[in-house]
Design brief:
mainly alpha
């Protein structure tokens, strides 16, 4: 045993300056830490998405005038739930909840998407827009309040209006999520690289 001590001391002395072992966690602790990080990212993303959906709803009166269209997402959702006076509150609640779900999903996918952060959110919002807008044909035919709503399918004006709303939504989500979930803050420490281009095997083993 005594003969091993000098070898270990020599190994420590030969370690490059500034290199330190990454903290090693038991498997159970690492799993819990990973879940906590993922939960935090999702919650922050949900907050960003809910706020962005609120901005979307708040500016709708302005874009209705700009596009000369009565298309209203809060009305569309609210009157799907109730035809009574409570439809604005019901529609806003569902709209904000949808935004929160989008934001939480985006927060988890964002590290795997290419491009600048805000572009990633806008791209994902536009993909949702293109995928879901054809459902307007079903809304025009089967929505319980369809006679009170602005027709969606086949209207370039409503398509442009929805495009603007998703663009704004994506910009707000991307910026808020960027501020709440700092990129790289929850990532594991990088494995130091030696001068020969290979990682430090001892640190890599300690991190794994």
């Amino acid at each position: 045993m005594a003969s091993l001590l000098p070898a270990r001391a020599t190994a420590r002395r030969s370690q490059p300056a500034g290199t330190r072992h990454a903290p090693s966690y038991p498997l159970g602790a690492r799993a819990l830490r990973s879940r906590a990080v993922n939960a935090k990212r999702s919650v922050n993303g949900a907050i960003a998405g809910a706020v962005a959906a609120g901005v979307w709803a708040a500016q709708q009166p302005a874009d209705k005038r700009a596009f000369d269209s009565g298309y209203d997402d809060v009305e569309l959702l609210g009157k799907l739930i109730t035809r009574g006076d409570a439809w604005p509150a019901a529609g806003l609640a569902v709209h904000v909840a949808n935004g929160a779900i989008f934001g939480a999903t985006y927060a988890q996918l964002r590290p795997f998407l290419p491009g600048p952060l805000v572009v990633r959110a806008v791209t994902m919002a536009m993909a949702e827009h293109v995928a879901l807008f054809p459902l307007g044909r079903l809304s025009d035919r089967f929505h319980p309040a369809r006679k009170e709503l602005t027709p969606l399918w086949g209207s370039r004006r409503t398509f442009a209006q929805a495009t603007w709303r998703h663009l704004l939504f994506g910009l707000v989500v991307g910026e808020l999520e960027r501020r709440l979930n700092v990129e790289g803050a929850d990532e594991p420490p990088e494995v130091p690289v030696s001068s020969n281009g290979h990682g430090d095997i001892e640190v890599a083993v300690g991190t794994a």
